[in-house]
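Batch 3, record 17
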Amino acid sequence: MEPFRFHLFVCTQQKPEGVPSCPTSGSSAVLEALDREVQARGLDAEVQLTTCGCMGLCDEAPVMVVYPEGVWYRRVQASHVPEIVESHLRAGKPVEKLIWRDAAAMKAMSVEHREKYRQAMAARAKAGKD
Amino acid sequence: MEPFRFHLFVCTQQKPEGVPSCPTSGSSAVLEALDREVQARGLDAEVQLTTCGCMGLCDEAPVMVVYPEGVWYRRVQASHVPEIVESHLRAGKPVEKLIWRDAAAMKAMSVEHREKYRQAMAARAKAGKD
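Prediction for the assembled complex:
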């Protein structure tokens, strides 16, 4: 059994200036709207809302994922939140127009991002040793 | 379809000095060990590893959750990681001794933490207006 019916993760990963990111695309407003709407609709006991770090999908920011279903939403804005809460979290019907279904593309994007990150970290570690 | 077979979330929420938290209980070392072990065991293509913010379960830190199964681990240390990767992520058998199964207790703890956070935020907002 899960502590909550739904566990939402919204990316709030900060990036250097000029780099695309969920926060610069509006994820903080999405997070605030979710917290507000979930309470307003009386779903507080059903929903756990958690911030998360980069999932490597910054080109389609802001990104959020709803578990345990594993429904991924991309380019979510605060204006979409009432529909997400009402349709998905209350009625159990994910909001089709916002769902990102191309798992292969998501995986490729995420893996590419991870590789770049690891290379950057390795280069930084090497520079620290030189 | 999910982009990855497993999606792991490890809490890395920073807290004020003296307050129990996942990072001060070792979550950064857990995260590094997971990244290293997942690669070493050739599971990189199956596992997405993401940091996350506070889930209100700080008294049992460090906490991590594995989706889509929704398996919660508590008091995870870097020394547990090889077993988690080998047993859970490779063989599909979650590590029983580390699983936190009391969903009711988790929910109560998380809700209490959330209420305190909201009260603190409301007090801060009020103080800002005064």
